[in-house]
Amino acid sequence: MASGHTVVVERRGAQTTGGTGRPRTAVVLAGGGFKGAFELGALRHLVERHQVIPDIVTATSAGAILGTVVAQARTHQDLLQRLDEADADLMSMTRIDVVFAEQPWLQELDGTVAADRIRQLLVESGPTSFDDPAAVDSRSRRGRRHRDHHRRNAGTDTGGQDAHPFAGVLEVVHRLPAAHRVSTDHTARGILNLDPFEAALRGATGTGTGTGTGTGTDTDTGTGVTSIDPDLVARDGLDLRLATTHVRDRVTHYVTEDAGLIGPDARTPIGDPGAFDLIDGLIASASVPGVFPPRLLGGEEYVDGGVLANIPLAAAVALEPERIFTLVASPVREPDHRAAVQVAERLGYLATQVENLATPLPEGTVNTVIQPTMLVVGTFEVHPGRMRIDIDYGWLRAQEAVADLDDGIRPILTTVSDTIIGLRQRAWSLENRLLDARDRSDLRELGAVKSAIRSAVGARRDLGFPAPSASDDWGHRWEVHTRATPDDLPSTFD
Fold first, then answer.
1. Is the Cα torsion angle 124, 279, 223, 77 positive or negative in sign?
2. Of 4, 34, 19, 26, nearest to 390 (Cα)?
3. Strands 251-256 and 261-262
4. Which residues make Cβ contacts (< 8 Å) with residue 247, sequence separation at least 6?
5. How far apart are CA 402 and CA 392, in angstroms?
6. Confidence (pTM)
7. Is 226 helix (H, G, I), strand (E, B) or coil?
8. pLDDT digits 0-9 by tens, 259-273
């Protein structure tokens, strides 16, 4: 399915949200790890420029995190505030200790090659494909060469294809001396856990100054992650469905706004009310199999909803909206990594995003799909600058998706936007090299790239599609980095 295309089914009668005069609207938020930055940018455009207020939110994994934050809002102004909070949360999560903690078995392997290798896989994982090879940054290239070296030495060479960052973990563990070996069953409980992130969502104060009251209004819980107030989510006016995968039955179940559990039809209650809370359900939705341990909901094990419903469109359709916006973090295609395929096969299903999007739409429903055509960040990549680029990419794609474009202008606009994002990735890479080394040989190329960005942004504006106000800086200033710019480098580019 082409990026941003709108799927329209003939309307018969307008279905509106009581008293508002607007169509009942669903927002579908897909999983994708830190690639969810794209969805944040897309949703911000919909809210800011088109006053979209969801009546239904269906979400998976990373999308469930964003979806639960915005599900606290009921008004346009409140929604804008929640999006600001989600943005701050995402940037705070670039500190991986805010989100992840190691499982005890990994901590017990301190000092071993396996422990070092697993930690390296986590911090080095990044984007694995770009439409423009020049957009791949030098750090990612160096990381892949380093990983390929380890694969060859470990006898796990993948033939030059990038593996999922956790694909080789079991092979590494199995090569340990017997005294340090960890069982496959033990590693199946996960490499990491989401305990620090869960604590922040529940309002626990770390070393910061936040009050941690759990009201959903704290801007700092000691981690920079804003706490979530389940009572705000449970108010009338919004239906929430967080997709999770029931491990034993190999089906999708959904957690609701009031922490209920419902079946695959997204309507029928199952289990005992009050057996878990909303945060438990959110963590279950984000518990990637093999990376994080399963979560118990009502005494049953659940893992990431993305195993079967990475794009939970079917849940939105079941609630009968008139209008759907489906936000997807990755280009819709077959899984890139064999590891992802193996996880789905082990659970008994291999449902892809393509199949998720094939959900039939009832009469009177319009589904606008907003998705990238290239990757900007990897699933577990935590560079703030790259995520900021991906947020802007989502904004541009949303602008295109909701516009009434003919088939002639759409591919031109898509190409211009991809060019802008590809050039910004290249600029970020060159800047990163300049910050890394005393060699300033990349400075001339960086200036040329910045000039090309200015031209591309201007071309897009000439087509009648101005980028966000911050785009004035894209071709003139540095991208976001975690290090200060040395004094011998220019602060602006003209």
1. positive
2. 34
3. antiparallel
4. 294, 300, 301, 302, 303, 347
5. 16
6. 0.83
7. coil
8. 999 999 999 999 888
